[in-house]
Each structure stands twice: as structure tokens, then as C-alpha cells.
Amino acid sequence: MKIAFFPPDLFEDDREVLLDVVREVALDPEQRFILGRRTERFETVIRDAVGAADAIACSSGTSALTLVLRAMGVGPGDEVVVPAYCCAPLAAAPVLLGATPVFADVDPATMVVDPVEVEKAVTARTKVVMPAHVFSVMADMPALRAIAADAGARLLEDSAVAQGGVLGGRAAGTWGDAGVYSFVQVKTFGMPGEGGMVVTGDPELGRVVRMLRNHGQDGRTRFLHHRIGVNSRFDEIMAAFQLRRLPGLPARLERRARIGEYYTERFTGLPGVVPPPPGRDGRCFYVYSLLAEHRDALHDHLAIRGIGSHVYYRSPLPHQAAFRTTGREWPAAERACARQLAIPIHPHLTDTQVEHIADEVCRFART
Amino acid sequence: MSVPSFTQSATFSKLWPTTSRHIIDVLDRGKYSHGHKVVELEEALAAYTGAEYVVGVNSGTDALVLLLRACGLRPGDEVVVPAFSFIASASAVVLAGGRPVFADIEPDGYGMDPASLAAVTTERTRFVLPAHLFCQPADMTGLGETARRLGLTVVEDSAEAIGMRYGGTHAGLLGKGGVLSFFPTKTLGALGDAGAVLTDDPGVAETVAALRHHGRFGPTAGHFPAINTTTGAVGVNSKMDDLQAAVLLAKLGRLDADIERRAVLAHRYTELLAGVPGVRKLPSVLPRRADVRGVFYVYALEVERRDQLAAHLAARGVGAETYYPTPLHLQPCFADLGHRPGDFPHAEAACRHALALPLYPDLHEDDVAQVCREIRDFSRSAEAA
Q1: Does residue B64 contact residue B85 with C-beta atoms inside 8 Å?
Q2: Closest residue of B to A320, CA-based?
Q3: Is A96 an 8 Å CB contact of chain B?
Q4: Residue A310 and residue B230: Cβ atoms within 8 Å?
Q5: Residue B110: how many other CB atoms lie within 10 Å
Q6: CA–CA distance, B116 with B111 (Å, rounded to integer)
Q7: Can you tell me the distance from the alpha carbon of B292 to that of B126, in angstroms, rounded to the nearest whole number?
């Protein structure tokens, strides 16, 4: 039995849908391929589903983060508090705007940013607090919201991996001044291309993001550029595809959650392996990551048995060449880098495959 | 019968067997951005343009930003850009951390005027970014000589210029590097946003390739696990969709035939519009000190009462586009640079008079005749008034 970590057949059931939407958009008499009525519809549907004031589709989750920071006026001299353990865009987005990312260490068990560390990182120059949901765990948004409010800083929720997650009855992406989603293929609402979205409860922020994503134009007068904007738009083909796949999303999310629950049940109490916390609140089952004492050996054990697993971040962001920050340590982030291993959780997995993966993790831990 | 400003439905239908084969290949491989189809497109474009390296990205604008960064633009460096172009020619400079300095254009070819380049260059200027607009490259001999004399690096906004050549060299390869835009209406157009960087410089190519994928160096295209590669540079996500690469590969096979078709249609416009009162200028590829291969991406003529003519055409179902109504130095986003009307008279005149007529391979000769009839009607009624 061979089980890939990155499923190669994500859209196997949607091959005809993709060919259909390409034809539909290409032959549409309107001949509008970017930011047309399908994108508008997709934005409206997501906006209403999460109860935001505005939802703005753009070219990627990374671009969504940068657009929001830009719209918040982040620039040289400003600080943005970001997790020390996560993906590069969290640090790159502030740097690209001339601001400084200030790293906060993470919770050693859940790998999301630790509010106590965020509070310590806040200074008078902090303009934005930018926590991220990581793997299957949402950050402690109520605590982070309070910290941002106290600091007079804005809160940008990197919910790129967490679409479908809910914490305390509130959808991932709606806890801060703005949140983002990513639709790159592997995500919970992935699609066959690059794309992302900004969601916000602040209509003015939404208006500015809308302008910035399309060269600073106001959507009425073409070729009149009010602000320096970027090209971060959304393709009609992808909007059409997402609209067709949306009805199946709850079932795919539920399948992911069940696989996650099953894993956690099997792994709780295993020696040398720490699963993510049980339960559904504040969870998003995008990636299921374990912390393993003998991580590389577990990876190899699984690989020999045909099971793909994946190490996400091999070094904390402040240790990477592009964001090198010296003078202190990030012990929890470093431990996560040494111990994190993600195992397959995609909704196409059969029960037999899931059981096999769990059996092999247990077998490794017990020997 | 209406004549839209753009349609590609007929071409799409004709190419669907090839396009769908490429899309099915993408589905079979299962990677939908920065995958094998993008690599295949990069290789095909390298063969077509003669570039040593082609790096696929998310848009022509991103291509410009990443190219400028890879060429070593430092914060505060000045880059001379034309005052008449699409906004990206200037906004890309700001996004890359530099300062745009505007130069006027040549009144006939719409490219940057070498004399104006010399006039606006200061000791902080390090780059010049000429744009090749509408149907021909800028005066690359004159601009190249001036740039060499002033010690400026040439980077080309060749977003519109696929197929254009200057002295036998493809546009974008006359300096340190150039870009391509595959915006749907372009000569080689996708069904969404996509772009590419062209360069013969291995260092520039490697840096652009890393910057487009979160600053990750090494072979990342086609590989999923690249996410755990650590970050060597402050990058962005500007990966190209394989679906768009599939569409572009299918179209690339007939690009030269499309270019030929565009030339025939442009020639027909010129025949039918010559001598019509109110027409100030018809486009033509200018003779230069080197052989030039123009490509009619846009058929832009200059007319009196341009906005009224555009409204007249729109009322009769003819989609004409105004490229560009406002010069870059007078855009609200550059208000802090303090320019005034009159600073760049040729750019301003082009903004007042230029109008782009429908021009694309799906267009029929009958459509061209109809557009020209409408222009003559407008001209007659204007004369009578």
C-alpha cells in the first residue's frame, strides 16, 4: 500500500468540471477572464458564509497578507509581531514593505504562537500583531485580540491554512481586523491554481485592499491609479471551479476532521509521540502534525512502508538567511523544527489507509 | 453587427484539442502551479525568443518587480521610465524599492526618447526601463548608447513585445533582461494572469526563480516538498498556474501565424483610414539603425476629438480602447513627485489623441471595414458640424 503525503489525485473527481469551466469561461460572450462576475459571486458567497463585511479575492494567501499590511499602512520603522515558527511569508511580508518582523516564540505542544511571547515582543513601534494558525491548531485568538487591543495595534489573522476552522463559535479569518485564506491546491478549500482571499469586518480596509490588488484603480475609472498598487487578481476559471466545488466542502472538512480525531485517539499516550490536542473547537484539519522524539526515524519507518510524511519547517524563521535575527533563542520553535512530522490527512484516504498509517505510527512508538 | 474590443472564442475553439490535451496532462501530473507544464512553457518560450532563461511568474507586473530586484536595484535607486505607458512601468519601480524618474517619448513610435533620457538622468540614476508599446520596440540603439554613456543598466518593459525583434534580438534581451505579459488580450494571451522574465544572465534568472517562490533557491518547480527548503532571500508568491501554461503552450504553436494575421489586419486599417479627415496619425513601424521586426499587438492611431470618436464607436457596438488616457507623471499615485501638465508634451499629446482599434486574430476583414466606415461617418459628421 503506497500512500503519498501530497495526494496526486486531488481533483480526480473534478476533471470534467475543470475542463468544463475552462470552456465555459473561454467561450463566454463577455470575454472577461479576470475579476469578473464569477469572482464577484465567489467573494460574496465566502463573505456571507463567514459573516465578514467584505471578501476580496487575490492571487495568493501570501499576497493577501501583504495587501492587508499595505492597506494598514505598514512601512519603514513599523514592527509586525509574527511567530518564530511558521512559513516564510509571515516574515517576508513585513520586510517587503520596509517594516521589521519581530519574532515571538511558539507554544511547545501546539506550535502556534504563544500569547505570552507575543506580549513580550510588543513595543511602541508595533503596528500589527500577526498570529498564524498552524497545521491543525488555531492560535489563541481571544488572548491575541486582547494583546493587540491593549497595544493599540491592528490584528491580522493568518488563517491561510484554516478555512473551515471555528474557535468559540467564530470562523477562522474573522477574529482580527482582517484574515486571509489560501486556495492553493493542498489547502482545505484548495483549487487547481494559485489564489487567495482577504476577509475583513472593516469595510474601509476592504475598499483599500480592493484598490491595491488591481494597480490602485477604484474599479470605476480604468487607467486612473489613485495609489501604488499591485497585480494580485483572481481568475474567472478558478472562481467558477470554486463555486462548483463549494457544496462539497463541508463533507471534505468533516472527513479531514474524522481522520484527525481517529489519529489523536490512537496516538494519545504513545511513548515518544505527542499528537495535537483532541476536540474540534479551535481546530482546522489542514495538516496533521505529530511531535516525535525520534522524528527522522519515524519518517524513515513510514517511508519504508510506503507512507509519505513531511517535515514542514527545518529551522525557525529568525534562523533563516533571509530573516536572520540574533541575540536570543527560540527554544520552542527549535524543538518544533526538530520534532514535527506531518502524516497524510487528505479526504481521499480510505479507512483502511488511515488505519494502516495509525498502526505503523503506533508500531514505531512501541518498539 | 458589433465588433468587440477583444475576443478569442474562435481561436480557442480551434485550439481546444491541443489545449485540452495539455490540461489533461496537468490533471494527470497533479501539480497545478509551478509544475511541469510551466517548465515546458518556459523551455518553449526560451526556444521562441532565444533567451537563455525564461522564468514563469504570475503577471507581467510581478515579472518587472522581480527582475528589477534581481538586477540589484537598491532602495532609493532611480529608474528612468517612460511617461507614457501602462502603470506597471512605473509602479514596479516603487514596488521594488526604487524611485521612478519620468522621461518623454518619441511622438511617433511611443518609445522612450533617448534625448529625454539623457536630460532626466541624475547621479542617483542606475537603471533605464524603456517600454515597447503597441507595434514596435523603442529606439534601442539610441537608448543603449545613452545608457552606456551615462552608466545605466538597461532593463526592458517588453510586456507587450512578444515577437518583436531589434537587430535580430528578441525584445527583452537587449539589456540585462526583460519581461512578458500573458494578459488575455496580449499577442500571446492566457485565460487569466500570467507573465515571465526573459534574460541571458544566469544570476538574474536564479534570483528571479527564487524570489517568485518565497525566496527558495534550487530546483523547486514540479516539486512539492520544496516547502521545507529554507528561505535564502525575501521572496513572494508569484508562481504561474499550470493551467495557464497549458493554454499558452497551445497558442504558442500558432503565434507566428497570429502575428502575420495581425499585420494583415493592421495593413487593412491603414489602407482604409489613410486621408480620413481628423485622423492625425496612423501607426507604422519606424526605420531604425538596426533591422526591426514590429508586431501589431495594438493598432493605435491618433485622432482629433478622440473621446467623442470613442463614444461614437461605442454607441455603434465597436469596442475601442483608450491606451492611455493619463500620462504616468500625472497619475494621482505619483502626485508627490510634483509634476505638472506640460512636463512631457509628447506623452501628454499621445494621451489626448491615441485610440486603439479592435485587433486580434479572431477579427474579420469585414469587421475592419465596418470599424473604418464608422470612423469615416464620425469624421463626416464632425466636418459638417
Answers
A1: no
A2: B231
A3: yes
A4: no
A5: 25
A6: 11
A7: 27
- Phi and psi, residue B154, nearest 5°: -95, 125
Grid cell locating B239: 508562481
Taking the C-alpha atoms of residue A93 and residue A65, their distance in angstroms, rounded to an integer, is 7
Q: Do residues B37 and B25 make contact, with C-beta atoms less than 8 angstroms apart?
A: yes
State which residue of chain A sits closest to B244, comparing Cα positions: A193
Q: What is the pLDDT of residues A330-354, one digit of tens each?
A: 999 999 999 999 999 999 999 999 9
Name, in order, each residue with C-beta under 8 angstroms of B153's C-beta and a sequence gap of 6 or more.
Answer: B71, B126, B127, B128, B147, B175, B176
Q: How far apart are CA B48 and CA A36, in angstroms?
A: 32
The reply to whether omega before B324 is within 30° of 0 (cis) is: yes
Is pTM beyond 0.95? Reply is yes
Beta bridge partners of B250: none
Cell readout for A184 is 492553493
- All three cell numbers of B44, joined, read 518553449
- Within 8 A of B14 by CB-CB distance, chain A residues are none
| Positions of E strands within B104-244 | 125-128, 153-156, 165-166, 169-170, 177-181, 195-199
Residue B381 contacts by C-beta under 8 Å, 6 or more apart in sequence?
Answer: none
ipTM of the complex: 0.97
Q: List the 4-23 stretch of A: residues with Cβ below 8 A of B.
A: 5-11, 15, 18-19, 22-23
Looking only at Cα atoms, what is the longest distance across chain A? 68
DSSP letter, residue B244: H
- pLDDT 10s digits, B296-327: 999 999 999 999 999 999 999 999 999 999 99
Do A134 and A105 touch, CB atoms closer than 8 A? no
Contact predicate B328/B84, CB 8 Å: yes
Q: How far apart are CA B190 and CA B251, in angstroms?
A: 9
Residues of chain B with Cβ-Cβ distance to A135 below 8 Å are none
Locate the DSSP E strands across chain B: 53-57, 78-82, 99-103, 125-128, 153-156, 165-166, 169-170, 177-181, 195-199, 279-281, 292-293, 299-303, 354-357
Q: Residue A328, Cβ neighbours under 10 Å: how many?
A: 10
